[in-house]
């Protein structure tokens, strides 16, 4: 699968790396750590870049986006409402019919094992697997 390019000709992966570097604080470190976990959970993940400057990770559809704000890194899962979340990682956008999000604030950590399982669950959901909620 070809990785989308930006209008400047930089690959999405390059733009994500540049965003991480330009943040230069805990948000960049958090985004880099989450990116690494996503790639470990799915070596075939496709990195994309929304025109508004948001990293997107996809596999048979969007898995999640990685937005950075002054006080948090927000990982929004496109089909989060359809995913099992036994470790209750989702802590934001809980009232929506489709999306769910994980807000990570400075000093907070996300369970590596639970996060990777959630990524794999999202991929299975995108692929029409059996990981959807009943």
Report on this structure.
With 134 residues, this protein is α+β, with helices and mostly antiparallel strands. The protein has a 5-stranded antiparallel beta sheet. It has helices at 12-23, 26-41, 112-126; strands spanning 46-50, 54-58, 62-68, 73-77, 100-104. It has 3 helices and 5 strands. The relative contact order is 0.15. The chain is globular and about 35 Å long.
Task: Briefly say what this structure is.
The chain is an alpha+beta fold and 134 residues long.
Task: Produce the secondary structure layout.
Blueprint (H helix, E strand, L loop, with lengths): L11 H12 L2 H16 L4 E5 L3 E5 L3 E7 L4 E5 L22 E5 L7 H15 L8
Antiparallel strand pairs: 1-2, 2-3, 3-4, 4-5
Helical segment count: 3
Kindly give the count of domains.
1
Parts with pLDDT < 50 across at least 5 consecutive residues: 1-8, 130-134
Mean pLDDT: 89
> Roughly how many Å is the radius of gyration?
14 Å
Can you summarize the main beta sheet?
A: 5 strands, antiparallel
CATH architecture: Alpha-Beta Complex
What is the first-to-last residue Cα distance?
31 Å
